[in-house]
Design brief:
The chain is built from three helices and eight strands; from the N terminus they run E-E-H-H-E-E-E-E-E-E-H. The chain is α+β, with helices and mostly antiparallel strands and 174 residues long. It has an eight-stranded antiparallel sheet with strand order 1-2-8-7-6-5-4-3. Helix 1 packs across helix 2 and helix 2 crosses helix 3.
Length: 174
């Protein structure tokens, strides 16, 4: 069973951080591996109905991972890529990275060119923190900084929660 909390902090009238916390029935090492092992990432990356056919993980400070999310056929079936450029890694405690949309070769892509709204952030700082919560449980908090308040933020919150639901389900299969 997970404990699910979502909250945001006010930065200005039109900017907000997206913060989602979960408590997983899994030890920190297992939750950490969900972010660092390509096979694990492919089990949860993408909201409901989406799959992740590839994840090239270069998990080190200054490394860049390239993850693919595939839309379901009824939504066009296209592949969408993201890069995670790691700026700081504290093993079993935190991962800081910059998220960008990308092409299949990992080159930064513009959201509008990809058919997304212009308020989709570029160079978005992310922080994932991990904390043991007793009895082989882990509290994980994902913070996505400086979202423009609007439709993309609402969709991002739904999508992040769906990804974390898939991550939780992957722990019960392990």
């Amino acid at each position: 069973m997970s404990d699910n909390k979502a909250k945001g902090t006010n930065k200005s009238a039109n900017k907000r951080d997206l913060i989602v916390s979960r408590v997983f029935d899994a030890p920190v090492e297992q939750v950490w591996k969900a972010w660092t092992d390509p096979k694990q990432v492919m089990q949860w990356w993408g909201p409901d109905g989406f799959t992740s056919p590839s994840a090239k993980i270069d998990f080190r400070e200054n490394g860049i991972s390239l993850v693919c999310m595939r839309a379901p056929k009824e939504c066009g079936g296209q592949d969408m890529y993201s890069t995670w450029a790691y700026s700081k890694i504290v093993p079993m405690q935190s991962i800081e990275y910059i998220h960008n949309l990308a092409d299949q070769d990992g080159r930064k892509a513009d959201s509008v060119t990809l058919g997304l709204p212009p308020d989709f952030p570029q160079d978005q700082r992310n922080l994932v923190s991990f904390k043991a919560a007793g009895d082989n449980k882990t509290e994980m908090t994902v913070t996505e900084y400086d979202w423009t308040v609007g439709q993309m933020l609402a969709l991002a919150e739904i999508g992040l929660n769906q990804c974390l639901d898939k991550m939780e389900a992957s722990f019960t299969r392990a």
